[in-house]
């Protein structure tokens, strides 16, 4: 049983998503992330269109740039982009592509799509904030379970854990899409390197909120958000 | 050149709080004093070159100016997609500083050689400034110049060097003036001395630059007659397309010399590889003479 305590933008999202995807069946990769994004943008992240350039803002990096419909819908719901942008996804005049580009879309922190880049950029961002004495903002980075296959992620997991990079939270949306799977669960790959981890139902907003704010001192934090299999 | 880089970087970290240094173990011990003074800005990620460049991208996104350093083959070849996506595609820059250019690591074999590094930067478009100093005294001013901006800069350090420094050779600097319409020989970085020796007594103009990107095409057009010879310390022909574009409306012939495409699968000293690739004075003289003779026959 899931709960949906997030309501600020929830009622607008289905309509916004339909503008992106039409009435055909929802693309699983686009919608696996919607509840995590909703909780992050409604309740966790301190980011608004007005503070999108503020050094003190929280950073949200979408590493899994595939199927960004939910991301675009949430950005529109929160006023970062006009709703009308959703009507021409990847069209010749569109600023919204099948993978997001930070130079084209307000509020987007990184351009992504090629898997295995967001976590390294997030580590660098977390280090850069710390080096400038910006100790309040957290860096959230969202990955997919199949994206963890990329070896570059494991460089970042090991380093962030070894150095206790405490202002970093990785969110892995697990829809069992990795070709060879992650037997024993994903969290162990992180905790063995010194991360703290919470594994929760990725549709349960109460559980997601607790996990996304459940980081502990001197350790990077992982949230595994389990959703229905991509199948 | 490596010592000049280490000294200058150490000083820059003390002077400029915007600078940061990202390492993947290479040169970490020499930079330990700097790391001790600036633990938040000197970041050794271990032997993780993809992460090294990704971290640099993240640092730059927060407004810092990262210097990133390793052997060319690991910094550029291995982490090429990170350079393309974590820096270029994000619209941020860094100062990438390599050592072990071309066949400096000849005794280590192909795994430690990267003659194609500058060609890889060409594949990224025209945003990168590429500096190829020919003398240790050119390193500090080029590094300081690079850290003062936010632009993407590649600084390619070598153990090959000329006898004299020309720190101001951003543009083509004439070091030997030939007669009217004499062939123009362009020497990049450490190729200057062998080029000057090779062309001794020939009626050619020899121009030097430590900055092949952007190449000084205005100077090239002003100095060139109908014959141009490129002498570059990386893959032969790397700059051919740029010269051809710059002189598209001028009838000309071009000879592009540099490191050959083939993996020789040989060890030996850098001097052996210089000879095998025809980049010593006598090899260059042979190639240039044959090219110029063929024009007149």
TrEMBL record, chain A:
Record-listed E.C. numbers: 2.2.1.1
A Pfam cross-reference name: Transketolase_N
Transketolase N-terminal domain span: 26-225
A GO term for molecular function: magnesium ion binding
Cofactor: thiamine diphosphate
Record key words, sorted: Thiamine pyrophosphate, Transferase
Membership in a protein family: Belongs to the transketolase family.
Protein's UniProt name: Transketolase
Annotated organism of origin: Micromonospora parathelypteridis
């Amino acid at each position: 049983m899931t709960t949906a305590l997030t309501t600020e933008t929830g009622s607008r999202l289905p309509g916004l998503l339909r503008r992106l995807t039409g009435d055909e069946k929802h693309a699983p990769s686009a919608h696996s992330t919607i509840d995590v994004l909703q909780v992050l943008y409604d309740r966790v992240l301190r980011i608004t269109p007005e503070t999108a350039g503020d050094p003190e803002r929280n950073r949200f990096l979408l590493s899994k740039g595939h199927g960004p419909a939910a991301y675009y819908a949430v950005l529109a719901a929160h006023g970062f982009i006009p709703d009308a942008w959703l009507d021409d996804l990847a069209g010749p005049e569109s600023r919204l592509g099948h993978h997001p580009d930070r130079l084209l879309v307000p509020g987007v922190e990184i351009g992504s799509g090629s898997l295995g880049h967001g976590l390294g950029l997030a580590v660098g961002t977390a280090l850069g904030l710390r080096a400038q004495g910006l100790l309040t903002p957290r860096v959230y980075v969202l990955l997919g379970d199949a994206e963890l296959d990329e070896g570059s992620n494991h460089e970042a997991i090991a380093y962030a854990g070894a150095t206790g990079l405490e202002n970093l939270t990785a969110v892995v949306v697990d829809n069992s899409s990795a070709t060879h799977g992650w037997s024993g669960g994903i969290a162990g790959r992180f905790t063995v390197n010194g991360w703290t981890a919470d594994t929760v139902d990725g549709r349960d907003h109460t559980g997601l909120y607790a996990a996304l704010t459940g980081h502990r001192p001197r350790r990077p934090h992982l949230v595994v958000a389990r959703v229905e299999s991509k199948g | 050149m490596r010592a000049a880089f280490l000294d200058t970087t150490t000083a820059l970290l003390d002077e400029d709080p915007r600078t940061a240094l990202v390492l993947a173990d290479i040169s970490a011990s020499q930079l330990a004093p700097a790391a001790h003074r600036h633990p938040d800005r000197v970041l050794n990620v271990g032997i993780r070159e993809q992460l090294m460049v990704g971290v640099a991208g993240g640092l730059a996104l927060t407004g810092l100016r990262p210097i990133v350093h390793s052997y060319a083959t690991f910094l550029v070849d291995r982490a090429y997609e990170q350079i393309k996506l974590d820096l270029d595609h994000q619209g941020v820059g860094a100062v990438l500083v390599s050592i072990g250019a071309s066949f400096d690591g000849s005794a280590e074999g192909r795994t430690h050689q990267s003659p194609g590094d500058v060609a890889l930067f060409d594949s990224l478009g025209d945003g990168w400034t590429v500096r190829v100093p020919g003398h240790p005294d050119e390193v500090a001013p080029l590094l300081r110049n690079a850290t003062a901006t936010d632009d993407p800069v590649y600084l390619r350090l070598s153990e090959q060097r000329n006898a004299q420094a020309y720190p101001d050779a951003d543009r083509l600097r004439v070091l030997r003036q030939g007669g009217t319409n004499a062939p123009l020989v362009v020497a990049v970085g450490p190729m200057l001395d062998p080029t000057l020796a090779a062309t001794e007594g020939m009626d050619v103009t020899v121009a030097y630059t430590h900055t092949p990107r952007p190449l000084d095409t205005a100077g090239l057009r002003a100095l060139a007659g109908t014959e141009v010879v490129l002498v570059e310390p990386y893959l032969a022909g790397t700059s051919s397309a740029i010269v051809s574009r710059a002189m598209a409306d001028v009838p000309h012939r071009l000879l592009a010399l540099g490191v050959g495409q083939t993996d020789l699968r040989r060890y030996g000293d850098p001097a052996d590889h210089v000879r095998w690739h025809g980049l010593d004075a006598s090899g260059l003289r042979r190639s240039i003479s044959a090219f110029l003779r063929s024009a007149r026959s």
